[in-house]
Specification:
Strands 1-2-3-4-5 form a five-stranded mixed sheet, with helices on both faces. It is α/β, with parallel strands linked by helices. 47% of the residues lie in helices and 22% in strands. It is built from six helices and five strands; from the N terminus they run ααβββαβαβαα. α1 crosses α5 and α3 packs parallel to α4. The two termini are 27 Å apart.
Amino acid sequence: ARVSQAVAALEAVSTERFAETVRNMGVAALERVAQLYLESRGYSNIRWVKRAGKSGYGTAEGPNGSVLIGARVGPEAVDRRGIGELRVGVEAKGTTSGLLLAPTELSEEASEEWTRGGSPVAIECGASFIDSLMQAGIGVRWRMAPVPLLDDEFFEAIQQG
């Protein structure tokens, strides 16, 4: 039980450090991370076309057509403009949909904006984006540590005969 707790604690610390690193990177660096992630998910022809403040915008071919990508940095929750500007961009660029990638969660106002009607925008923000990056192996190394664990079944079998 203590080993499991220690492993869970190590995972939590590693995840938080990873999230903090991604939240604090610049827009250009987040674009590169997002590009690797999108390529791992089957997106192609990714081109970053504009930077505005804390956001980078790009286009890509996704599983369901053309996509306008918004990659947003910073430690603050994504504000309403993060969704609104992406939605306006989807219409202006004539893409099929939008995708917002951010290492922080949506603010309450952004969540309300997202549920409003308009161009379809998918979000991968906060913990889900961080987990997805880690599962894709982007910016992390997975290590196996040899740890001797008590084999209760072995000792039960030995004692029973």
